[in-house]
Write a structure and sequence with these properties.
305 residues; alpha/beta; Rossmann fold; 2 domains; 6-stranded parallel beta sheet; 3-stranded antiparallel beta sheet; 13 helices; 13 strands; binds 2'-O-acetyl adenosine-5-diphosphoribose
């Protein structure tokens, strides 16, 4: 079978190849758009690109890793993808298969609470059986390395906490927590005998996640904004940058002078404001950044003696 270069999305094994990837492959001399590769050759070239495990560090980034004290990180669904949690957008994204307006709005919950609860139970079931990946653990390490470190996430899966991150600002709530619509009490029951579940007070329980059209938890958002404003180095990891107000955080950081680093499989809607971009898996890139920072900080100490 002959495969020709074609911009746009093309399915290859279990990976999504887009025009950006094909550009990267050609740029690195792995792929020549004018050549008709046979299927095996083509796939092995794509796999080679994904298996390139070593990243490079430019001078600006090295300086920042060495000297920065205030670091903030925003993560999205991509950081959990290697653990097996599906992302929302992209070819295999959740919102390609399901309509968010029928499952992730208060109106949907009011209209059909049982369906919405079934959907969240299904997602809980996926999350219950997975573990944090090297990307989550690298962020735990980062919290120990930098003096002032803030981890902000749009993810509701709780994997950052499970990995051991001490403080996590969960902008979109947590799928393991329920909240009563009447008394506001939190509840941590994972499975209910009857759907939709009812609180002791008689009120309806809902998953404590932020749905479309809802306001984010004020304190968490305020703290996240403040961290973005004061950060010297800001990482945006595994997020499409498509959802506000989370997508504004890297912009706020940039406007206030931070060096902004993006880690993603492909360019996002906020790539244009990022100073340094790594395109690959966060579970492979983050541990290298941590290792480099440790190395640099030790060197720094030596020099300061
Ligand atoms: P998206 O699904 O929109 O984007 C996930 C991003 O992760 C994409 O840009 C992917 O390219 C990238 N990605 C996938 N695998 C990766 C990997 N292994 N390493 C690095 N990057 C990877 O998810 P979010 O940006 O988190 O909101 O979506 C934001 C919000 O939209 C979610 O919190 C959710 C959703 O609707 C609510 O439910 C309120």
């Amino acid at each position: 079978m002959q495969i020709k270069y074609s911009p746009g999305r093309t399915r290859t094994s279990d990976r999504v190849v887009n025009s950006h990837l094909l550009y990267q492959l050609s740029y690195r001399g792995i792929f020549n758009p004018s050549v008709n590769y046979n299927s095996v050759d083509y796939h092995s070239r794509v796999a080679y690109y994904y298996d390139m495990k070593t990243i490079t560090f430019n001078e600006k980034f090295i300086k920042a890793l060495k000297n920065t004290k205030r670091v903030a990180v925003l993560t999205g669904a991509g950081v959990s993808a290697e653990s097996g949690v599906p992302t929302f957008r992209g070819a295999d994204g959740i919102w390609k298969k399901y309509n968010p307006m029928e499952l992730a709005t208060f109106e949907a919950f009011n209209a059909n609470p049982k369906l919405v609860w079934e959907w969240y139970n299904y997602r809980r079931e996926i999350i219950r059986n997975i573990k944090p990946n090297p990307g989550h653990y690298a962020l735990v390490e980062m919290s120990k390395i930098f003096d002032d470190f803030t981890l902000i996430t749009q993810n509701v899966d709780g994997l950052h906490r499970l990995a051991g991150s001490p403080t996590v600002y969960e902008l979109h709530g947590n799928i393991h927590r329920n909240r009563c619509l009447d008394c506001g009490k939190f509840d941590y029951t994972e499975e209910f005998d009857q759907l939709p579940p009812i609180c002791d007070c008689g009120g309806r329980l809902r998953p404590d996640v932020v749905w479309f059209g809802e306001i984010l938890p004020k304190e968490v958002l305020d703290k996240s904004m403040a961290s973005a404003t004061h950060a010297e180095l800001f990482f945006t990891i595994g997020t499409s940058g498509a959802v506000q107000p989370a997508a504004s955080l890297p912009v706020i950081a940039k406007q206030n002078g931070a060096l902004v680093v993006e880690i993603n499989l492909e360019p996002s809607e906020i790539s244009y404001i990022c100073d340094i971009k790594y395109y690959g898996k966060s579970g492979e890139i983050l541990p290298q950044i941590v290792a480099k920072t440790k190395e640099l900080k030790d060197l720094h100490k030596e020099k300061g003696k």
